[in-house]
Design brief:
Flavoprot_Pyr_Nucl_cyt_Rdtase, 289 residues, Elongation Factor Tu (Ef-tu), domain 3, FAD, 6-stranded parallel β-sheet, alpha/beta, binds flavin-adenine dinucleotide, 2 domains, membrane, Rossmann fold
């Protein structure tokens, strides 16, 4: 929900943005992290690489190669474009997947949705093309605020979870445990698998990932189906159990998955409490990216 507020604020500021954009330069040396404060910046695409059947990894150059992006842990970038000469901008958030301390680059992993306005535009970009970004803070992460976080992601909703999990585990002062449940359509939709395996090996007992594949291939090592109450219980995420009393749940996925997890209101065709409520998680224990 925080994303929607941020997007609305950005729409309100779009006039200012249009003026700013004309003056923004991807090659200026700023001497400070460019996304340390709010503002729109146009960045040059350095490279673009297909990493599975529908997802590209794109690396954008920061204007000052000696500086990191300045994004805080659990931030996204709002992208702005006017594809095909549109009058109204297309605004969509994407979560950087590179280490936030890396200097000179931000990296995105963007899944292409057929007919999707922004993902189609981003997939069409060639090295040297530019894209406009503004930082949007998501969850304000405080180390050790919760003993355990349950991350539940669907499809490309994995990127905020990856950024946060890596940031938590990288910080020697943060002892938060993480259980990640990631629902995808097919085995081929999985990306970042090697990175997650590395984290599991490096942090046994602190990080565990459960893949749930709707239509698995023959011999797939993963659980079959959707993210259900049984799957979440099997991953040790029953909200009422003693060991999960301090567990906080983070959710990012397509709207139908979020509705199934968090429930629906009456005006959406009959109120449903949602799987997380059934598992014992109150709304104050759930955050949606
Ligand atoms: C905080 C946050 C971070 C995000 N980070 C990333 C990221 O790192 N990488 C990434 O690829 N995406 C990410 N997304 C999703 C991204 O913002 C866009 O929603 C997505 O790229 C689709 O935009 P579009 O303009 O291409 O599609 P649209 O033109 O908005 O929609 C076209 C069609 O695509 C389908 N569609 C759109 N969005 C979704 C979706 N989320 N799930 C399933 N079907 C959908 C629908 O059928 C829709 O009718 C993030 C979303 C949030 C809220």
């Amino acid at each position: 929900m925080s994303t929607q507020v941020a997007v609305a604020a950005a729409v309100a500021g779009i006039g200012v943005y249009a003026l700013y954009l004309r003056r923004s330069s991807a090659s200026a040396q700023t001497g400070k992290p460019i996304f340390g404060s709010f503002g729109f910046h146009s960045l040059k695409l350095h490279s673009s690489e297909l990493i599975n059947h529908n997802t590209k990894k794109l690396r954008f150059e920061l204007p000052d190669a000696s500086q990191p992006s300045g994004l805080s842990l659990s931030s996204a970038l709002l992208t702005v474009s006017f594809p095909n000469g549109r009058w109204l901008p297309v605004l969509r958030p994407y979560t950087p997947t590179n280490d936030l301390d890396e200097k000179g680059f931000v990296e995105l992993m963007v899944k292409h949705y057929p007919g999707g306005k922004q993902s189609t535009h981003i997939h069409s970009l060639k090295p040297g093309d530019t894209l406009t970004f503004a930082p949007i803070p998501e969850l304000k992460w405080s180390p050790n605020k919760y003993p355990h976080v349950a991350m539940i992601a669907g499809g490309a909703g994995i990127t905020p979870m990856y950024q946060l999990a890596r940031g938590i585990l990288k910080n020697p002062d943060d002892q938060t445990r993480i259980t990640l449940v990631w629902g995808v359509n097919t085995d081929e939709d999985i990306f970042l698998g090697d990175e997650f395996s590395e984290l599991e090996k490096k942090f046994p007992g602190r990080f565990k990932v459960h893949y749930v594949v709707a239509t698995p291939k023959a011999g797939s090592p993963h659980q079959k189906g959707f993210v259900t109450k049984q799957i979440l219980e099997g991953a040790g995420l029953s909200g009422s159990s003693e060991k999960n009393q301090g567990t906080h749940v983070l959710v990012c996925g397509p709207p139908p998955m979020e509705a199934a997890l968090k429930g629906t209101k009456k005006f959406l065709g009959g109120a449903q409490p949602g799987l997380l409520a059934e598992l014992g998680y109150g709304k104050d224990r759930i955050f949606s990216f």
